[in-house]
């Protein structure tokens, strides 16, 4: 039997799972519901200058990159294996699309964080 | 006298010499408060239809022979009672994810002839010792490390519960992987390397997506989900070459 | 065993036949909402890099009813992911003992859930007041 390469993807899945389990609900609530509506969160909390300053700080960059990258690697792993659960034959092509997509997003986010400056 | 009531039992029938596919047959079965599902099947065979074929043996949830799907859930039929389903119907089918041989009898050879031997279910000692060298010494703490996983009665309820096994029978499966862990975790054993090919493969622990239903249905609380997922960590450490660093081996 | 004609039952619709499996599929499907949310954040990052006008347009789009509805669904499913994640986390934990007794699974799971609550309070406080 061949040794599986799953440990690589499972580690990324696990890291993304822990991070999203900790802060995805609150992030969704803040950015997607209460800040847009302006309830329990003044809309100014997410205004341009404030968020730009956060994204220019090295800690902010690290957090933004971790969130986008790990959330997507977690989802890619679950979606790829989930397709098998619903009877869809997901082969190498799907694997490349899923994890490759997460990797592309990671690189794009890293690039954008650099162009945003320090 | 005990109150006798009547319940409807719907059983899957399949005669390989006559049927192209299985069909249900319903029987009315008398029962009291302590009649098991197995006894219901035995009543049908003894008094209503002698051709009904099913496995059973000890009647006390230790042999692992009488596993059936009862209303869609894997159960030991000797350990499940008709009173809990009354006044509804009881639907009995062969354990899921195995080929049906006849009526409620499944083809178990994949587990007993392939999966179970593949994980080397025996202690692989550090060195062969003569009898004169005496017995192994094992502390209660060392025993605790694997005791839970040694309780498996090979009833196959976990395989009936596992959709990954149902979707791909190459998957080694819950009971075999739990037993693999039982031996790896035994302080007398040094068989990690011999078992690692199965463990680290896609057909090993990596075929599991932690549905978790296996541990839910296990009548002996073996917790195969735990055995498998602990070993995802072990397999990952092994993959990155740090397992020996972080896991000192106990025992002699 | 001798070669006999056996019947293999189909797997179609397997997960719809048991509530345990339905919950499992919801848990897995939560990842779709998580992925879409991460892409929304990535787009937000892009707009942030393009200047104030572009960023404000992105924020504006988040006030639309479609967006609010999506985020409610995302909150529910990803919340379910968080809950189930901690509930199964003891399965990957090594056997740990305190005073000779194994640590109960609920303690590990509970620790994780507390972690989510604590992290949520922290993130809210930082966004609101820092």
Sheet of most strands of chain B? 5 strands, mixed
CATH architecture of chain C: Up-down Bundle
CATH class division of chain C: Mainly Alpha
Topology as H/E string of chain B? Answer: EEHEEEEEHHHHHHHHH
* Helix content estimate of chain C: 55-70%
- Beta-strand percentage of chain B? 5-15%
User: What's the overall geometry of chain C?
Assistant: flat
Domains counted in the coordinates of chain C: how many?
Answer: 1
Using a beta-carbon cutoff below 8 angstroms, give the protein chain pair with the largest interface and the number of residues from each chain.
Answer: A-C, 52 and 50 residues
What is the fourth-level CATH superfamily of the largest domain in chain B? Answer: Alpha-helical ferredoxin
Instruction: Round the Cα radius of gyration of chain C to an integer and report it.
Output: 22 Å
What low-confidence regions of chain C span 5 or more consecutive residues with pLDDT below 50? none
What is the residue-averaged pLDDT of chain C? 93
Radius of gyration of chain B: 21 Å
Q: Which architecture of the largest domain in chain B would the CATH scheme give at its second level?
A: Orthogonal Bundle
Strand content of chain C: under 5%
**In the CATH scheme, what's the topology name of chain C?**
3 helical TM bundles of succinate and fumarate reductases
Which regions of chain B have little confidence, pLDDT < 50, spanning 5+ residues? none
The number of helices of chain B is: 10
What's the structural domain tally of chain B? Answer: 2
Secondary structure: number of strands of chain C: 2
């Amino acid at each position: 039997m061949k040794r599986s390469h799953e440990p690589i993807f499972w580690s990324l899945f696990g890291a993304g799972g822990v991070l999203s389990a900790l802060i995805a609900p609150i992030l969704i609530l803040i950015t997607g519901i209460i800040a847009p509506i302006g309830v329990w969160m003044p809309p100014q909390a997410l205004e341009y200058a404030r968020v730009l300053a956060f994204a220019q700080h090295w800690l902010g960059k690290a957090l933004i990159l971790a969130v986008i990258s790990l959330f997507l690697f977690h989802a890619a792993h679950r979606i790829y294996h989930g397709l098998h659960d619903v009877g869809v034959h997901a082969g190498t092509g799907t694997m490349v699309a899923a994890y490759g997509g997460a990797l592309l997003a990671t690189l794009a986010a890293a690039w954008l964080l650099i162009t945003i400056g320090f | 006298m005990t109150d006798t009531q009547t319940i409807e039992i719907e059983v899957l029938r399949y005669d390989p010499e006559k049927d192209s596919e299985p069909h249900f047959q319903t029987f009315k079965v008398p029962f009291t408060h302590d009649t098991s599902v197995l006894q219901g099947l035995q009543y049908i065979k003894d008094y209503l239809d002698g051709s009904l074929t099913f496995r059973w043996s000890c009647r006390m949830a230790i042999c692992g022979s009488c596993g059936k799907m009862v209303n869609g859930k894997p159960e030991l039929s000797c350990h499940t009672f008709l009173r809990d389903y009354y006044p509804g119907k009881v639907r009995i089918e062969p354990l899921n994810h195995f080929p049906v041989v006849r009526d409620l009898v499944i083809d178990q050879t994949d587990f007993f002839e392939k999966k179970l031997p593949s994980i080397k279910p025996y202690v692989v000692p550090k060195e062969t010792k003569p009898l004169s060298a005496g017995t192994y010494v094992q502390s209660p703490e060392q025993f605790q490390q694997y005791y839970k996983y040694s309780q498996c009665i090979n009833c196959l309820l976990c395989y009936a519960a596992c959709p990954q096994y149902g979707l791909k029978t190459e998957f080694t499966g819950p009971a075999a992987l739990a037993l693999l862990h039982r031996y790896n975790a035994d302080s007398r054993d040094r068989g990690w390397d011999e078992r690692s090919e199965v463990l680290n493969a896609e057909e090993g622990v990596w075929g599991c997506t932690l549905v978790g239903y296996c541990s839910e249905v296990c009548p002996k609380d073996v917790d195969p989900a735990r055995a498998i997922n602990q070993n995802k960590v072990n397999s990952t450490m092994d993959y990155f070459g740090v397992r020996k660093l972080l896991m000192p081996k106990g025992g002699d | 065993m001798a070669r006999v004609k056996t019947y293999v039952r189909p797997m179609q619709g397997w997960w719809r036949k048991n509530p345990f499996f339905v919950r499992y599929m919801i848990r897995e499907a939560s990842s779709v909402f998580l992925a879409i949310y991460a892409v929304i954040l990535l787009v937000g990052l892009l707009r942030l890099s393009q200047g104030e006008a572009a960023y404000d347009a992105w924020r504006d789009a988040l006030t639309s009813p479609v967006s609010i509805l999506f985020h409610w669904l995302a909150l529910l499913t990803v919340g379910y992911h968080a809950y189930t994640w901690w509930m199964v986390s003891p399965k990957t934990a090594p056997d740990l003992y305190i005073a000779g007794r194994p640590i109960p699974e609920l303690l590990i799971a509970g620790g994780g859930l507390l972690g989510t609550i604590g992290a949520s309070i922290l993130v809210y406080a930082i966004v609101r007041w820092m």
